[in-house]
Design a protein that fits this description.
It contains 32 helices and 21 strands. It is an alpha+beta fold and about 750 residues long.
Amino acid sequence: MTAVQPSPSSQHAPAPSPAQAALADAAAATASAASFAGLLEKLDYLGPASIEMVRQAYHFADKAHLGQMRSSGDPYITHPIAVAVQCASWKLDAQALMAALLHDAMEDCGVTKADLAERFGISVAELVDGLTKLDKLQFNTREENQAESFRKMLLAMARDVRVILIKLADRSHNMRTLSDMPRSKWGRISSETLEIYAPIAHRLGLNQTYRELQDLAFRHLHPWRHSTLTKAVNKSRNRRRDLIQKVQAEVQTAFDRAGMEVRLAGREKTLYGIYLKMKHKRLSFAQVTDMYGLRVIAPSVIDCYTALGILHQLYKPLPGKFKDLIAIPKLNGYQSLHTTLVGPSSTNVEFQVRTEEMNVVAEAGVAAHWLYKAQDAQGSAAERLGTQWLQSLLDIQNETRDAAEFWDHVKVDLFPDAVYVFTPRSQIMSLPRGATAVDFAYAIHSNVGDRTTAAKINGEHVPLRTHLTNGDVVEIITAPDASPNPAWLSFVRTGRARSKIRHYLKSMAQTESADLGEKLLAQALRAEGIQHMPSDDAENQALWEKLLRFTGNRTRAELMTDLGLGKRIANIVAKRLVALLGEHGWRPDAVLMTRERYTSHEQLTQGALTLDGSESATVQYAHCCRPVPGDEIVGYLGRGEGLVVHRSICNVAKRLQHKDSERFITVDWSEEPSRLFEACIVVTVQNGKGVLARLASELANAEADIVHVDMDDEAAMGTVDLRLTIKARDQAHIENVLRNLRRTPSVLRTQRVLPQ
């Protein structure tokens, strides 16, 4: 046998460089991604005829996208193949896979719906059309185009849920390759993913896709935060590996001892989930204790509850951390038992206990319908998996053909905990269910919320407390001099609106309280014979520092705010200030002291404070007696409440004066009040037709506004008492209103409600 000698040229052929080898590997990977072979491996659940149909769709798409490249430099066909592979993992049918391969053909390649219908059938054409964005030339703005495209997609989904599954697969691959896109587009695409597509995936029960979309969006929206958390999680994972392994071993031993066959799987909280928990609950990374957990897969529902009992015997459960989502599933069909136990080293470990079928639904959600389709010839898979709502989504088209009604139905069903509304420029905004026009205003911008005066919904004026519904077009009307109303806090739904309103009111209250504190201290000083308060300058700095040490305040402004809120007594502070002034040579004016300290009733006071109704949050008019200009009044400086004004004959005020007299100051009305004041009146009438209308007309003629009407359930009675809360200028105005009412037919008696 003759040995074959290598040729000289082959002996000296240079070895490929690492760079050349890498290029060759990349080219091979690209060729593999662009070929049908990779997809073919995932199609083992389809028959030969179905596979051939998918192959034809691939060849059509490959030809249509020929010459087109993605931002990464790969052939464009790699994207449709990746989308189809994702759909194949959900075991979608051949039509869905064909639509996945062709989903960009209409938009990017000039292929018409008629072409697709003729070649692949009307069903595939409808699916592709539902995935195709609208013609941008039809719309004036990007926002309007986005809104209408999203609306079209949802309407298509109402006819066929496979539309949204393909769209989610499309969005998932786009997010995986987002790094190849220009950085300027990362923010918009990631925000859209977090606000629209991730919630849809969650509602459909596609938890794996939901988590992936959230983490990919988080990575590109906040790269630095994502990188930092990744490093922290890796370090924590290394530290806790032994602990988790120990817990897993102890749990497995406990189940073996009980003779139960279960499957254990580890579960780790997503980076975005950790980030949200840290952000919303204001926790440090070390304080997030439920990053790791174990999933127990049991054979049956009964075994799930048995497994729960074994776990609770092994480790102590945390009170309030148990959820039975098997008995009461989530709206998207998710079922599981959740419990948090105190494991070794006092580490909290979350356990999820479920059956294999529940686990499939938890990961695949709506796609589980197709995963179990082949196994369930009777078609009861949806019911068995707790996904009855799927059928309602698919059957919406049978309930109505009206597009607007389609929109409402799908929205309500798909987003049970959210409403989607539009700005006048067709931008989509997501708000919690029960949100109002004020929530919408603050969602746009805090300045818009602060300046809100009115709102329009679908072109009609509505009260600000009106609840928003899906599809509403909301317009906010603002005014430069407007400010938040404290009453908004009683109906706003979002935390953002609530915190912004409270922050504004607190800031205003502090400013106004400081002004009131200045007035109170100045009046208390005059009662001590000091005409002017010492100025806040370098000359008197030592004096103010001594006073602040006495009161315990850090700054002069803080002291004035405390005086205005009633946390400090102006009399006491004034006496201390007079003593300090005496050390610097100031002497009280005896004449001023006599004039200011003693009234005609010879009662010791701090001097009168004049009120005109413009004092906002610093001054409150007591609801127990509702004082108006012309009434004799007193002022009570409540602890942290500011100044509360009562009528002098009010029993509440008398009780407070008896036990807390040093907090009372003399107050008086201004010559010209700046607003109307509330008062309560009782009108006794003969019950009959049109009585309330006549009263309202008479009140309007008297220029009095009705704030509230109350009456007992006395419809069968001939005589009833109407209790009205009205707004009036002063005491004389109220008397005029009562005289006019007495002249009204059917009115027997009228009187102002006196304080109790």
